[in-house]
Amino acid sequence: MSSPIAHWDPEYQRRAATIVERYPDVRSAVMPLLYLASLHHGHVTEEAMEEVAALTGLTAAQVQSVASFYTMYKRERVGRYLVSVCTSISCFLRGADEVLAAVEGATGVVDGETDDEGLFTVEHVECIGACGGAPALQVNYEFVEGVTPAKAAELCRWLRDARPEVVLGDEMQLLFGGRPSFDPGAPEPEGAIAPVPAFGPYGSARPGTGGGR
Amino acid sequence: MTERILTARMEAHPADSHTLARYEATGGYTALRKALGEMSPADVAAEVKASNLRGRGGAGFPTGVKWGFLPEDLRPRYLVVNADESEPGTFKDRILLERDPHQLVEGIALASYALDVHHAFVYVRGEYPKPARRLQRAVDEAYEAGYLGTNILGSGFDLEVTIHLGAGAYICGEETALLNSLEGRRGEPRIKPPFPAVAGLYAKPTIVNNVETISTVPWIVAHGGRAYAAIGPERSCGTRLFSLSGHVNRPGDYEIVMGMTWRDLIFDVGGGIPDGKALKAWIPGGASAPWFVPDEHLDTFVTIDDCAAAGSMLGSGAVVVMDETTDVVAAAHRIVKFFAHESCGQCTPCREGTTWMERILWRILHGEGRPADLDLLLDVADNISPGLRWPPAMTTICPLGPSAVSPITSIMRYFRDEVEAKITRGATVG
């Protein structure tokens, strides 16, 4: 039988094999494989869930029951830049609602929606662990802390104009952020290539490398 | 008060505290060398027990005692590090992951050796890709240098470490929900017993410990459990990371010896309230915790037991400060909205109750409150957490539902006039 992901990029196929090897039980690979499948498909499509099911010996319904539980598995089209504005208590106390409004204004995209061009998705999210740098947001899950409504709007316009291939948290923090939760130490030369958490096999890259590690 | 255990390296070496070179140059992995060379697994466990270290994830359960719950004869055993930091107001594991990941890796190796574990997992929340990258690099470096993998430092001890990314569900911070998630299932809490120590990951004996807890283990092994127990108050010994946020002049992570007062923590450590405003209330231990107010609690001691005695909890060490301008109904609504969103939906009182409490608070907030709403709110709350006591009684599998009750009982106890005024004003306008 041919591989259910034979049509994937060979690099992604290799990563899928690495993921499966990591766990004593193949079912544990469902979550990381869902991230990898959304890199291939752009989001968690029906086909993606069927592929993950075939790789793990589950039914597509079982995979869907997992995918639908977690907010970071996007089952609808997502823009190239996913702007997630934290509106939980610490950010709320520091003006998060005004930041969200500014992001909506600058992108022309209301909370929970994606624009026609597929450039921006805007969402409000629950606490992202950046409370000391409130109000905070993430672009493709890379942090920008201590923002203001004006700076957040500027960030969105910069994304629209510069269209960075790799979204770098430290670069955005420097250009558009304020006080962070803590001193970040040395700059991080790595970032996200898609609206998927940029970790290990799931879409992280150094600028100029054109893909993952 | 200036003792630094967890944050000493990152303070002294901000540029490279996360690298193996810096970690080794500042005494890193000597505790592991010592343990594997001179100590039995039981010796290491005995030091952790003697340290009186209490878990830093929120519940404050003594770590050494938890380790003792593993059945003698069942193998394999697993260690799972809980890095699903999601309690609103909390960002202290993030700094440990980003700035001193090798400290955690060494702690994982030591704990695994003590517990006869050969495969450890770290469950990092999905919104923490940068911390996860830093940790993965540290794990890779540790394999390369022989601190992880097979025959570690020639001792014959083998250990694999796998980092697993969550995907945006607060409930996975609850240990049994975390285990379900790690098994590739929906992150729904399990009914206990059995406890994870008996039947955890893949139904095998499993210890789940918080990032900060495990990061403390290298110091304990290097300096001895008794030295750790001697720091600070007897039942809340050692240092602890506090996350300060909200209306304070100096928000951030602070490592302090427990035992100072809330006045010290908010006004000295946190620099007081911005713009000379007055303090109205604060949350002492994450969004789940009942609030404290200046009239009653400023001189309460910041210890696990003193907070419990005062009707709240030190929880995850997340302190959220609210100044006099804070609309407490809006703040409570925001917290209840969080829990309504994060309820896993298994238990009816939580799934329905958090949703209705959020809706009732929303209408009070927007001038549509009804005089009967106060009793209705408390009635719904009482169905989730009968008696509205602290620590809460529960009609649910896990404490998420009762956590959503905390902000409601808090505003009703301390700011009932403000809630009533909103309803009266709303009725007048309407």
Write the layout of secondary structure elements.
The complex is a heterodimer of chains A (213) and B (430).
Chain A: H1 10-21, H2 30-41, H3 46-56, H4 60-67, E1 81-86, H5 89-93, H6 96-107, E2 120-125, E3 137-139, E4 142-144, H7 149-162, H8 169-176, E5 191-192, E6 204-205
Parallel strand pairs in A: 1-2
Antiparallel strand pairs in A: 1-3, 3-4, 5-6
Helix pairs in contact in A: 1-2, 2-3, 3-4, 6-7
Chain B: H1 8-12, H2 20-25, H3 30-38, H4 41-50, H5 63-67, E1 78-83, H6 92-99, H7 101-115, E2 119-124, H8 129-145, E3 160-165, H9 175-182, E4 206-210, H10 211-223, H11 225-229, E5 239-246, E6 252-257, H12 262-269, E7 279-283, H13 294-297, H14 304-309, E8 318-323, H15 328-342, H16 348-365, H17 373-384, H18 400-414, H19 416-429
Parallel strand pairs in B: 1-2, 1-4, 2-3, 5-8
Antiparallel strand pairs in B: 5-6, 7-8
Brief synopsis:
Chain A is built from 8 helices and 6 strands; from the N terminus they run ααααβααβββααββ. With about 210 residues, chain A is an alpha+beta fold.
The strand order across the widest sheet of chain B is: 3-2-1-4
Number of helices of chain B: 19
- CATH architecture label name of the largest domain in chain A: 3-Layer(aba) Sandwich
- Bulk shape of chain B: globular
Secondary-structure element order of chain B, as H and E? HHHHHEHHEHEHEHHEEHEHHEHHHHH
- Chain-averaged pLDDT of chain B: 96
The major β-sheet of chain A equals: 4 strands, mixed
How are the strands of the biggest sheet of chain A laid out side by side? 2-1-3-4
Q: Low-confidence runs of chain A (pLDDT<50, min 5 residues)?
A: none
Are there runs of chain B of 5+ residues with pLDDT below 50, and where? Answer: none
Query: What is the helical fraction of chain A, as a range of percent?
Result: 25-40%
CATH topology of the largest domain in chain A: Glutaredoxin
Secondary structure class of chain A reads: alpha+beta
- How many angstroms separate the termini of chain A? 29 Å
**How much β-strand is present in the residues of chain B?**
5-15%
